[in-house]
Amino acid sequence: MKKLIVSLLFTAVFIGNGYCQNNDINNYFNFGIGLGGNYGGLGTKTIIGYKNSGLLVGLGTFSGGLGYEVGGQISYKWLYVNLGYGIIGVSENQLTNNRTELIKGKMLTTGAMINFGNSNKYFLDLGIGYDWDGNYTSNSYTNEKSKFHTIDGAIGFGIRL
After folding, report:
1. pTM to 2 decimals?
2. Residues 63 and 100: beta-carbon distance below 8 Å
3. For residues 36 and 128, what is the distance between their CA atoms, to the nearest angstrom?
4. Given 2, 18, 92, 126, which residue has the most CB atoms within 10 angstroms?
């Protein structure tokens, strides 16, 4: 899955440059449905701001729990970078009947919003990022905490309003 996202992102950057332009000067809101950290797991991603830059709110479900990301996004034409805080992973506790613990941390993601055809309204969202600073209980007997960091991806479909 990660290799697919990276391949699609490079294709968008080097081949699909004409389909990635966002020239809609009246864009203050975009909404997407997808999978990844930006989407709170499986859920929605909303950007409120001028030309896809501004407040980022992702809300969804992550391994049966509430997944989210709150942060900011900076966008130039079709390329974006966002920084946020939210659910970055899950840990299962063997002593409590495999009860899951959602891991919270920071996320840095870069990606592309690739337009469908000549439309500036509908787009494919592809991103890859790094998550860090998450803590989880690694030993239930001693309540020992461990650090969690990972590389993640995001894919979704969106609309600019």
Report:
1. 0.79
2. yes
3. 9
4. 126
